[in-house]
Amino acid sequence: MSQSTTVNRRFVLAERPKGEPTDATLRLETAEIPTPGPGQMLLRTVYLSLDPYMRGRMSDAPSYAAPVEIGGTMVGGTVSRVVASNLSGFKPGDWVVGFAGWQDYALSDGKGVVPLGANPSHPSWALGVTGMPGFTAWAGLKEIGQPKSGETLVVGGATGPVGATVGQIAKIRGCRVVGIAGGKEKCAHAVEVLGFDACVDYKAEDFVAQLAAATPDGIDIYFEGVGGKVFDAVAERLNTNARIPVCGLIAQYNATGLPDGPDRLSWLMGLILRKRLTLRGFIIYDDFGHLYPDFAKEMGGWVAAGQMQYREEVIDGLEQAPRAFVGLLRGEGFGKRVIRVGPND
Q: Whole-angstrom Cα distance, residue 42 to residue 331?
């Protein structure tokens, strides 16, 4: 079923998944399209962002944000067009980026909505390189990583929207950049298209040895979004005073318990002390939201100058979102994964 002018489709959370989400986790419902009241506007979703953090919103475990309620519309960043507006500053036809969620239509009071103008050249990019993932890369690297020319930076998920941007910014800042990605194709893309100095395949049997060879002078900055065995390998290569911005741990999002093996907390704490590491987690808008104008200006300049290579994977149809999201968590995505929910016009 394609997007309609009379019916609103939406995916609601039907259950809290144990481990990987299944076909029963999200339920597709239909309802009437809502009518905007005073101080509201009606938005029609054109693009829906798929991001790893959404897995955490399916859980009711303690987190930095409230979980989606059972029966509630699944959350998500969106690029939309204004259908009708009772808000000053927004008129029908305008493009906006916000958080309308996994649905065709949503009411908005304008809070958290950023205008994109009447005719943006790449509207979906507001969900990627010029949006939240790009901002995450820029602020985490600038504020926590603090890159210096000549240093070595390693980034996991190297061809994803955050990792690819981190690496390219680090190159602009004069760093040696080593990516970690899954598969030869992604590693080739990181080097040949993104301009990384090297990329290591974490699926390779000799991954640890390859990482050591690619970082002969150790690692000064590790931008963490993966966790698991990738962090284990990186930890052995960290230099004294290394910085580790932590924006996510995708390898652990479907975990139902602690990993097998001995308790390694004492080892990690000892490593932090011995190497004098700076390890800081961050939530982009909570911690660095005030820097967004600076990010928008600098990233906009890089994009306009052709200094940022950006790969986008567009999947057609809202009905494809659940399986595309599971694939994202499995590492199947290549670039920024978005769902095209409706037509641009």
A: 34
